[in-house]
Write a structure and sequence with these properties.
Length: about 160
């Protein structure tokens, strides 16, 4: 079965968002969950802002002091856009770019929490495994992120 594109670029440069209601309902719940973690010491956040100065703790501390709040603010702003436009059928490029950032952040946090690695065979998970639904959500977010990238690239 060929799946219909969820996001498609229109001739006028806008983007048509064709998400079924069940997918919108699921996506509606995620920004608040990530927002609640932002700024915390949760280890699942470590990939959202990797060190800029791995071998220089002083420079790293200064970088975090200067840029840390701006980085968090940009992530919150992307989540805000998703929440504000979750029921929209048409997005502009800036809104879709915010979606891309939010989806990426959600996947990074989920992937870190699930300890996803390149050598994992996610499809081999047992249906009874309690993490199977989380891996399915992780996969869905990847699918949707691919749709966003393809639409922005004009594919």
């Amino acid at each position: 079965m060929i799946e219909r594109r969820r996001i498609k670029r229109a001739r006028d440069g806008s983007f048509h968002l064709r998400l079924p209601g069940v997918e919108r309902d699921l996506l509606r719940t995620l920004p608040a969950q990530l927002r609640a973690l932002l700024g915390s010491a949760d280890p699942a956040l470590r990939r959202l802002a990797p060190p800029a100065y791995v071998d220089d703790p002083e420079h790293e501390a200064e970088y975090r002091r200067l840029m840390g709040e701006d980085l968090l603010a940009s992530k919150r702003a992307a989540l805000d856009v998703v929440e504000e436009t979750i029921d929209a059928d048409v997005l502009d490029e800036a809104q879709l770019t915010a979606w891309m950032g939010a989806l990426n952040d959600l996947r990074l946090v989920m992937g870190t929490a699930l300890d996803v690695s390149e050598d994992m065979d996610i499809e081999a998970l047992d249906d009874d495994d309690p993490q199977t639904p989380l891996f399915a959500l992780y996969g869905y977010l990847g699918f949707l992120q691919e749709q966003v990238v393809a639409a922005l690239a004009g594919w």
